[in-house]
Amino acid sequence: MKEIVHGYAFKLGQWNTKATMERCKHVIDEANTLGVYLHVPFCSTSCDFCAFYQEQSDRKGILAYLDGIDRELEMIERTGPVHTIFWGGGTPGLLPAKDLDRLCRAVVAKFGRPELEWTVEMAPSSVKADKLKALRDNGVTRISMGVQSLDDRALEALGRNHSRKQVLKAYDLVREIGFDSVNLDMIFAVPGQTRDQWRADLREVVGLEPDHISTYCLTFEEDTALYVKLSEGKVSIDIEKEADFFHISWEEMATAGYEQYEISNYAKPGHACLHNRHTWRMAEWIGVGPSAASQEAGWRYSNSSDLKVWQDELAKGVRGTSDRSELSDGILFEDSLIFGLRMNDGVDLAALEKRFEMQLPESARGIVDNLVAEEKLEECGDVYRLTSDGRMVADAIGEALLGCFVEECSE
What we know:
This protein is of the alpha/beta class. Helices cover 43% and strands 18% of the residues. The radius of gyration is 21 Å and the shape is globular.
């Protein structure tokens, strides 16, 4: 197995027996929740590291997109209540206040306001008071801002079009308008970034006292400017240095009182992102907008990652034509196990076996037992959680488990 999980941050710490026992009693029933994900594909510029589907568009294109959302919502048979809503992008905050208001009203008319949480992603350069008020007044409860860094040198290396000064101004405005929860996304292992710079970056972000912080190790995705630089030898990946960045993240977040609940995510009590938690637990969600993925009614599928094609398909009365596959209990069990192990709560294997009415395949059981013997996993009754050593190879563990359930079903 790999010596480190590339691309993720995770928590360092010894197991506290009392705390562990309490976690083992805590089995969250999130299987019956319903979420909605809405994709807003527009960006003013393309960041060097970003591989998400995005478009640069004029007013005509934005209006066509809004019309398409109205059309798609009409086509969706399922209605509320929904538990969580998440708007991602692209940059949802790039839309003017009147468009955000229209989009909110359309979603609420279809599903009602979510019972638990409504998140909207925003870039610091797009944060304006009228936009925030439109979101707040329509029921948005959580703002997730892609800060990435408070160091202008790191921001330049990432190709971001905002500055440290803009981040601080935007954050103050978000707090002033008032939302239940605010998340700040951070990226580390940026080319040229030192360990001391990352520690200072984290400390300054923690000093702002956001409710939630996500820390991601920079990854080099194909079809991005950074990947081209990597292939040309202009930048490089230093696994050992990344490990040091991980340790710094653990130390600083623990010291600041943020609890890690997933490999890349830390929150103050009561501020974990519920939409993401439900997704990792393999609940159902409906995706709306170009490239948005859905998992519901026994199927997993995506909309076309092309604004024009998405619009043309809607005009023909169809949606969700990409990567469409039927979901078996085995697939959902496997995904629940792999993604569940990313979470600090771990997985309750007995609960998963009951939920999917099948036993853990022998091949997967063998992997789990070996991981326990290697002290990569710790068991507490039926609950299994990655240890600190296990988190160092979390991606390799996921890869090892991948396919175990398919092999069992095909025998």
